[in-house]
Specification:
single chain; 404 residues; mainly alpha; 18 helices; globular
Length: 404
């Protein structure tokens, strides 16, 4: 057997990345249970992996979007508009499901926790103002802080300007995009080690004991997210593609959702999603824009978190929420979720905004936020997994992947 044939056979026998991640997950749990101190120390591997993803993501988005727009062929279809519609519809449906689950399984909370120190936004206007200011952010500052709205805006502007550049310049941008994509693939290969470190550290440090008292709340939250991931999203994709959506749904959950669950960062998962879109052979001009945009505005998980915790606060105070108020909450949660990435603390600090619809005092609302931080080990992981996997799912549906 030749050296080349031997290498091919060895590559085929090597377990896939998902299998390697599962192995890392099992080993991480085992280490945390066997030697908690070593598990906490292994967290360094997880931090390095997440930091590497966060570091490469802004550069990837900036270069890829700029190159895609600069080399865009006149008349080529990008599918961005239908994907935006899918993002908005999916987020609103998530809020409606969360309202339904909260009415079917009402949750009450023990509000005896000191309020969170962070300041919550005082209204939708403040959320949208923050979002708009991020669009006109300094490009260097946007890259440093991972402000993907600002990165997209500058990349689009420069891409349009470079369309008038010479062929050599545009070819250089294309080569730069390929080079950054290669770096991303190198980073992703370390995912099993990163997941191993993240799992070992989390279980060794928390042991999930603090979550036992909030099991009902977590069941409502996770149940709502599972309904969106396994029922609503497939239905939306089926309506769009008129094909069985589940092979695509499970692929996105397996190859995007698993990584996002452990990194707990939509920004860190952007390189993973772009790599998956490339393997799905989607339109590069489309996913180079829709994936980072989805990490900013496609927030079904955030809409669920805001809605469930806000209604839990209302139920705790004995308030009767009528249908009209619930629909208004769904709309507010959807809009607020789209701006969640523009607020420090994400979806949790938008809870007081939603609670204000029921006249709930801000001090009480911030106690609910504090509970959100306690269950964040599970809640934030599931929320990020749903958000990030849905970015790829709706991008693939918008591109009509199954039709090819």
């Amino acid at each position: 057997m030749s050296h080349t044939e031997s290498a091919v056979v060895s590559h085929r026998r090597a377990p896939g990345l998902v299998v390697q991640i599962i192995i890392g997950l099992v080993l991480g749990i085992a280490l945390a249970l066997w030697a908690p101190k070593l598990g906490i120390a292994a967290g360094l591997l997880g931090n390095l992996f997440v930091s590497a993803l966060k570091a490469v993501a802004p550069v990837l988005v900036f270069v890829l979007v700029m190159a895609a727009i600069a080399n865009h062929r006149q008349g080529a279809q990008t599918h961005i508009r239908p994907i935006l519609y899918l993002y908005l519809i999916g987020t609103f449906c998530a809020a409606l499901v969360a309202v339904s689950m909260s009415f079917l399984f009402p949750t009450t909370l023990e509000l005896a926790i000191k309020g969170a120190d962070s300041a919550a936004p005082q209204g939708i206007g403040e959320v949208m103002h923050t979002l708009l200011m991020r669009i006109v952010d300094n490009p260097i500052n946007a890259l440093i802080n991972g402000n993907f709205v600002g990165i997209l805006a500058w990349a689009a502007a420069l891409g349009l300007a470079f369309r008038k550049a010479g062929d050599n310049t545009r070819a250089l941008l294309e080569d730069a995009a390929e080079a950054v994509s290669s770096v991303v693939k190198w980073v992703i290969r370390f995912a099993p080690l990163g997941i191993f470190g993240l799992v070992a550290h989390t279980i060794a440090e928390t042991g999930f004991k603090a979550l036992a008292g909030y099991s009902h709340l977590l069941l409502v939250l996770i149940g709502s997210m599972l309904i969106i991931a396994l029922v609503v999203n497939p239905l939306i994709v089926f309506i769009k593609l008129r094909r069985n959506p589940y092979p695509l749904v499970f692929k996105c959950l397996r190859e995007s959702g698993v990584t996002a669950f452990f990194t707990r960062s939509s920004a860190a998962n952007i390189p993973v999603n772009m790599d998956l879109c490339q393997r799905l052979e989607l339109h590069e001009d489309t996913y180079s824009v829709s994936i980072p945009l989805g990490a900013t505005i496609n927030m079904a998980g955030a809409a669920i978190t805001i809605t469930v915790l806000s209604l839990a606060a209302a139920h705790t105070l004995g308030q009767d929420v009528d249908l009209l108020s619930a629909l208004l909450l769904s709309l507010v949660a959807s809009v607020a979720a789209c701006g969640a990435s523009g607020v420090a603390g994400g979806s949790l600090l938008l809870i007081p905004l939603a609670c204000s619809l029921f006249g709930i005092d801000n001090n009480i609302a911030m106690q609910v936020v504090a509970i959100g931080f306690i269950i964040g080990v599970v809640q934030d992981s599931c929320e990020t997994a749903l958000n990030s996997s849905t970015d790829v799912l709706f991008t693939a549906a918008g591109c009509g992947v199954e039709k090819r």
